[in-house]
Amino acid sequence: MAVEREKMVQQATEAPPEQVVYGNLLLVASIGGIALMVVTFLLYISGLVAPHFPLEELPKYWGRGISAHEYVEATKAPVGWGWLRLVGKGDYMNFLGIALLAGVTVFGYLVLLPAYIKRKEGIYSVLVAVEILVLVLAAAGIISAGH
Question: Is residue 10 part of a domain?
């Protein structure tokens, strides 16, 4: 009887294959994103890759109490997805790892959605589809919070 109960508990706690794939994707992307941030930050602070805005001039703007808008104007910093055109610059190269970490959830949900649809799990299918939609619309700047 104890063996049967143990088997039932094990079956109840096993994750479906798509959730294992999703978890592994998050693990690999998290490690990769953090490693990419470390490497690109070291390239930036070492001076091996020239920045868009000189590192030594940043402190002049930090202590001035200026608004984000004034900072963007003074440093000619891009807004929104404009950083992509500066990805070859040391100070914007760092954004690659952040973008990887931010985007991996959508790709993971794209793994889960077909499996939920195939198993006719309506609530999970709708929740995942809505989450994908919200994340994509937010990334595109179509929806935002606090405005």
Answer: no
